Structures are given as C-alpha cells and as structure tokens.
Amino acid sequence: MTNRRLIYFLLSASILLMVLLRIQGNSLITPVSATGILSLEFAFDSTTVAEIVHAWHQGLQSSFTLNMVLDFVFIFFYTCFFYFTCLYYSWTIPRWKKIAALMAAGALAAGVSDFLENILMIISYNGMVNGVISFATFFLATLKFVIVFLLFLFIMVATLYVRIRRSRMASDRKPG
C-alpha cells in the first residue's frame, strides 16, 4: 500500500519545483514568447517556433537549459505523485479500483508525453525546426495538460469522497 507520507513528499516536491520553474521561467518571457516556455510548448507551426528559438538564442541559452533540467526533475516528481496517489485511491476505494488503475496509467502517459515534448523542444531549440516537430510538440503538450487536468479532477473527487465517507462512518459510531 502506498504510504501517505510518500504522497505528501511527492506533492510538496512537485509544488516546489512548479514554483521554481515559474520563477526561473520568467527570463524566457519575451515579446514573441509572452508565456515563456509555454509559448514554445504550444507553438504548433514552425514559423512561431523559429521566432521563439531565435529570440532565446539572444542570451537566454542558459535559462532555457536550466528550465529543461528543472522540468525533467519536475516530470519525475509530478508523475510519481499522480501515479502513487491514484494507486492509493485504488486501495482506499475498492469500488473505484479499475478507474484508479486507469488514472495511474494516465499519470505515466502524462509523464511520457511531457518527457517526449521536452525532447522535441530541445531538438527545435538546437536548430531542427520543422512543421512535424512543432506540431508533435504542441500535440504532446495538449495531451499532457488534458491528462493532468483529468488526474487532478479524479484526485479531488476521490479525496472528497473519502472525507465524506470517513465523516459519515465517524458519525455513525457516535453513541446516540
């Protein structure tokens, strides 16, 4: 069974890395990349990707590199957080075992999507800008965010369900 302390550790590490990425990523905000790294993730055509890459080659190489390194670490922690949390709920709510297992697999899919997306962004940044890579990066980013949204929604509903169930069980045990 997954330890709740492990889940809290993974959640804390994920939040810390998200904040670090946000702060560090501010340097990647330029007139052609208004949302920093997200601009590159969601640039689905090669022209936009080329503009962003060109802007970042003007003194932002180390910022891009650090952002990628931090993001790879972040991918590990948030993937593990979602995976182990879904496994926890598969054991905590036996009736939800199948959906929780499916969501755990979704967590792995989100992590793989994010990893591949980062590899494609690195390839683009290093001069291989084309329509296929740009669209694949956009597709993987979109897929990742949709899966993460569904994971977040599942965990919120499961948490609420468990709290309500525990509250009812506690009130049923109170004497008369």
Share of helix, binned: over 70%
Distance between the ends: 35 Å
Identify low-pLDDT runs. Answer: none
State the shape. elongated
| Count of β-strands | 0
Number of helices: 6
Order of helices and strands: HHHHHH
Decide which structural class fits the backbone.
mainly alpha
What radius of gyration results from the CA coordinates?
Answer: 20 Å
Quote the beta fraction: under 5%
Report on the biggest sheet: none
Mean pLDDT, all residues: 93
Could you please describe the fold and organization of this structure?
The chain contains six helices and no strands. The chain is elongated. α4 (61-92) packs antiparallel against α5, α4 packs parallel to α6 (131-173) and α5 runs antiparallel to α6. The relative contact order is 0.13. It has helices at 4-25, 37-41, 46-56, 61-92, 97-125, 131-173.
Keywords:
176 residues; 6 helices; mainly alpha; elongated
What is the gist of this entry?
This protein has 176 residues and is mostly helical. It has 6 helices and no strands.
